[in-house]
Structures are given as structure tokens and as C-alpha cells.
Amino acid sequence: MKIKKGDKVQVITGAYKGTVAEVTKVFPKENKVIVEGVNVVKKHLKPSQANPDGGIIEKEMPIHVSNVMAYDSKAKKASRVGFEIKEDKKGNQTKVRVYKKTGAEIK
């Protein structure tokens, strides 16, 4: 999966289309991500020992990774993600993620 925890992403489809936020959790086996403030639902909690009153909480639910794109803050655009092999002065090679639109490295 090309999107990782901590990446800034833009939602490209659905009710939250256009929202730019950070990825808080990634589920690679299910190809889903949780994005901060996106796909918020109300969940009813039954009273328990830990939460004696029960109540209603707002919770962020996962969305499919195909519904988000990596967001380049400098270019202010969403972009696909690619990989490049970088070589340092010692000759060691590392694989880095880059934005396809600008070619800039993803930090």
C-alpha cells in the first residue's frame, strides 16, 4: 500500500470529497485507512463497568484507500505515489516514495 500513517491525503470521492487531513491508522490487509475527521459516525455504547453511563460517541470509521490520494502541501495538489531508487555517496540504495506530479520526495 502506498499510503502510510502520518501522510497528508485528500479525499477524492464520497461525502467528504475535497477534505485534506492526516491518516491516523492503516489496515493493509483490508486496503483501508482511517483519516482524521472523515467518515465520522455516531456509535451507541451500552453501559459497562468501564463506562457506567453508556451514551453516544462519535467515531472515525475506515474508508477504502482508493478513495484518497496523497496530498503535496507545497504544490497544494493531490498526486499519485510512485517509487524511486536513490543512491547515497557510499553507494547504498534506498527506495523512496515520490509524488508523480512534482517528482518531490514524500517525507
Automatic annotation (TrEMBL):
Gene3D superfamilies, sorted: 2.30.30.30
Domain of life: Bacteria
SUPFAM superfamilies: Translation proteins SH3-like domain
Domain KOW residues, every copy: 2-29
Keywords linked to the UniProt accession: Ribonucleoprotein, Ribosomal protein, RNA-binding, rRNA-binding
UniProt GO molecular function: rRNA binding; structural constituent of ribosome
A Gene Ontology BP annotation from the UniProt entry: translation
Pfam family, one: ribosomal_L24
Keyword set includes Phosphoprotein: no
Gene Ontology CC, one term: ribonucleoprotein complex
Keyword Ribosomal protein in annotation: yes
InterPro entries xref list: KOW, Rib_uL2_dom2, Ribosomal_uL24, Ribosomal_uL24_C, Ribosomal_uL24_CS, Ribosomal_uL24_KOW, Translation_prot_SH3-like_sf
Subunit architecture: Part of the 50S ribosomal subunit.
NCBIfam families noted in UniProt: rplX_bact
Role this protein plays: One of two assembly initiator proteins, it binds directly to the 5'-end of the 23S rRNA, where it nucleates assembly of the 50S subunit. One of the proteins that surrounds the polypeptide exit tunnel on the outside of the subunit.
Family recorded in the similarity comment: Belongs to the universal ribosomal protein uL24 family.
Protein's UniProt name: Large ribosomal subunit protein uL24
Record organism: Longicatena caecimuris
